[in-house]
Amino acid sequence: MMTPPRNHTAAENPNSQPPYPPMYLFAGGGHSPSLYRSLLQKIFSGLPRPADTVAYIGAANGDNHSFFTGMAALLRAAGAGTVRHARVSGAAEREKAQSIIAAAPVIFIGGGDVEKGMERLTEAKLCDLLRQRAKDGALLCGFSAGSIMLCREWITWTDPDDDRSAARFPCLNIAPMCCDTHGEDDDWSELRALIALSPAETLGYGIPSGSAVSANPAGTLIAYGAPVACFRRTQTGVVNESPLMPRNTQTEKA
């Protein structure tokens, strides 16, 4: 069921200042390094201080070195200086990770498995630090699973063959929204399942492969690269909303 199109421009108090800067959620998937690179270049150029150091967090992929080198190359191509790997795999590494994250003006959370990533961040006692860094004005970016981790919550199944075993679990809740990334091939089935378990009027956003969304703490979203799917929880189920179009004038309240 498709609901009537809604106005994607949300009115805001022009005198109010969000408590921290927008964060950027990259979908991953596909092959769009040029979009990611150009968007990161724009982001870095607008920082009040240079992106001289980027803290990369690979909690979702178990600190995989290949993931890190690929993302580090993209970040440096976009103008980042030093890209430091904030590893979470051991006690000594976690102490170093805390220092890296505390000092970096840009924090980039890589892809992998959302649930495992949140478990590792929690074990490493990094969740509160990341929330504080956002409030301090650090720029936070996510890629694939890292984007979902920046949002409110995600979904898991204790039994993959039993839909009744699905349950929501909390994420960092820095981006005030629910999203999925590069799930267009199965029509966003996991995102739909999450929204179906959520309170009425909850919105969920599907960021397709090769695209991105920025989200500020007031809940205003901007799409880049491709239309972003939108779903709403109603009293009777999950319905499609009009998509968030990739134009700077098109914004949405999460």
Note the main attributes of this structure:
14 strands, Rossmann fold, 254 residues, globular, alpha/beta, single chain, four-stranded mixed beta sheet
Write the layout of secondary structure elements.
Elements: E1 23-26, H1 33-45, E2 53-57, H2 65-77, E3 82-85, H3 91-103, E4 106-109, H4 114-123, H5 127-136, E5 139-143, H6 145-150, E6 153-157, E7 166-170, E8 179-181, H7 189-196, E9 203-207, E10 212-215, E11 220-224, E12 228-233, E13 238-244, E14 251-253
Parallel strand pairs: 1-5, 2-3, 2-4, 4-5, 8-9
Antiparallel strand pairs: 1-10, 6-7, 9-12, 10-11, 11-14, 12-13
**CATH superfamily membership:** Class I glutamine amidotransferase (GATase) domain
> The biggest beta sheet, please?
8 strands, mixed
User: In CATH terms, what is the fold-level topology?
Assistant: Rossmann fold
Low-confidence stretches: 1-16
Oligomer: single chain
| Integer-rounded radius of gyration | 17 Å
Number of distinct beta strands: 14
> How confident overall, as mean pLDDT?
89
